[in-house]
Amino acid sequence: MKMYLPILFVVSLLFSYSHGSVLDFCVADFSLPDGPAGYSCKKPANVTVNDFVYSGLGIAGNTSSLIKAAVTTAFVDQFPGLNGLGLSMARLDLAVGGVVPIHTHRGGSEIIFVVEGTICAGFISSSTNTAYFKTLHKGDVMVFPQGLLHFQFNTGNIPALAIVSLNSANPGVDFTDVALFGNNLPSAVVEKVAFLDHAQVKKLKAVFGGTD
C-alpha cells in the first residue's frame, strides 16, 4: 500500500491542476441567466476597464425610509468584474436612529468597518443561541459569520457610515421581518408560529407589506 501513496499523490495533483481555472477573470455576461456558479463569462473582446470599476459607493444612500438606513451594494449585479472572485462590498449609511433589521447572508461572511459615528452591531450563534454584540466606534471592525442572524443600528447623535465587505460576489440577503410579515400567510398562522397577538401581526403586516 505504501508504494502506491506517492503515485496517488502525483495523480491527485495532476487532477487538481487540470481542473484549475486558466482564465484571468470571468466578467459577468448579464445577457445570460445567473446560475449556482454565477454568471457566464463575457467574451474577452467585449470586456472593458469599466467592468472592473464601480463608483456607486461614493454617494450617500437615502436614509429617509422607515428604517432610516440605506445599504448601497457593490455586488456582482452592479459590478460585473466581481463575477467568480468570491468578494463584494457595500456602503452602509445610518441616520440618527437608523437600523438594519436582523438579516442573514446565505452566500458569505461579512466584515464591517466603521468610518464615522457609532454603531451597535451583533450576531446570534445558531449552535448556542448566544448573542455577540458591541458598540463599534470609528475605526472598529467586526465580522459576522456566514448565514448567522445579525444586525446594525446607530447608537449616536450623528449619522453613521460603514463600509462592508463580503466573501461572495452575490451573498444574498434575507430580512427576518420581511420574510415573516411581508408575505401572504394568513395572520392566524403567523400568530401561531410567532407567538404574537393579532394586533401585533396586523400592524407588522401593514408595515412590511404582507397580506392576510
From TrEMBL:
Assigned keywords, A-Z: Apoplast, Disulfide bond, Manganese, Metal-binding, Secreted, Signal
Chain sites annotated for binding oxalate: 105, 110
Main location: secreted
Domain of life: Eukaryota
Gene Ontology MF, one: manganese ion binding
SUPFAM superfamilies listed in its UniProt record: RmlC-like cupins
Family annotation (Gene3D superfamilies): Jelly Rolls
Annotated Cupin type-1 domain residues: 55-202
GO CC, any one term: apoplast
InterPro entries according to UniProt: Cupin_1, Germin, RmlC-like_jellyroll, RmlC_Cupin_sf
Disulfide bonds: 26-41
Pfam family, one: Cupin_1
Similarity field: Belongs to the germin family.
Protein's name in the database: Germin-like protein
Lineage: Eukaryota, Viridiplantae, Streptophyta, Embryophyta, Tracheophyta
